[in-house]
Amino acid sequence: MQLAEQVVLVTGAGRGLGNAIARAFAGAGARVVVNYRRSCEAAEALADELGREQALAVQADVTDQAQVAAMLAAARVHFGTTVTTVVNNALADFSFNGDARAKALDIGWEVFAAQLEGSVRGALNTIQSAAPAMREARFGRIINIGSNLFQYPVVPYHDYTAGKAALLSLTRTMAADLGPEGITVNMVSGGLLRTTDASAATPEAVFDLIAASTPLRRVTTPAEFADAVLFFASPWARAVTGQNLVVDGGLVKD
Predict the structure, then answer these.
(1) CA-to-CA distance for 49 and 46, rounded, in angstroms?
(2) Segment among 197-201, 215-219, 236-240 with least mean pLDDT
């Protein structure tokens, strides 16, 4: 299915990386569900900018399956067809500032639980809610947003990294289970992005260090990252599933 034929749900699309991903899909002609939890004004502004025939802003907490189901139903009514593509980008509240993060001996389980809820439960809810229509259509694209911190744990984001590592496992098991239904499941993992709301607290010196460590000598932007997300939804990725693509300017090699 061409990108222009798809209806794409982007969770956490009111701001930051999700906003860039939603814009990229709309730029390719897809219709976009701009999901948000609290960023109502920004999400509605994005839908207005893209045009209401092409975009729909919907409030839903993806950790609540009933709200996810209601969001998909609203998208079907608005666009007259079901969601074909899901991008699990929503992030539990988190600030990318390593100096302010609890270290290994101080961090509590409650922050791990919050990240697992946001990363894994949220993705599980969207996949389970969207997959039946995908299965009926014999086409579906699920793209989870991960992190390169599995391979490059340079900052003590213990809870965030654990949540994303679990999401990678879910990506691969779901790919194996849903593949026979015509549904692919992949992950795109980034490093520090310049700049999103989540990375706004990152000191400039950290951006400079990351840039100097990459072959491209710069920090990846949200728009550049979004390009890779579109690849997994495109016909060029039709034989690719269960994969984790790292998009960080070459910082991580495997």
Answers:
(1) 5
(2) 197-201
Backbone torsions φ then ψ of 166, nearest 5 degrees = -65, -35
**pLDDT tens string 159-213:** 999 999 999 999 999 999 999 999 999 999 998 888 777 676 677 888 888 889 8
**Alpha helices by DSSP H, the chain:** 16-27, 40-50, 65-79, 109-116, 122-137, 158-178, 204-213, 222-233
Q: Which domains does the chain have, with CATH numbers?
A: 3-247 (3.40.50.720)
Within 8 A by CB and 6+ apart from 193, the residues are 17, 199, 219, 220, 221, 222, 225
Supply the pTM of this predicted model.
Answer: 0.94
242 with 176: CB under 8 angstroms?
A: yes
What lies within 8 Å, CB to CB, of 209 at 6+ separation is none
Catalytic residues, by residue number, are: 147, 160, 164
User: What is the crossing angle of helices 222-233 and 16-27, to 10°?
Assistant: 50
| 50: CB partners within 8 A, 6+ apart | 22, 23, 26, 32, 34
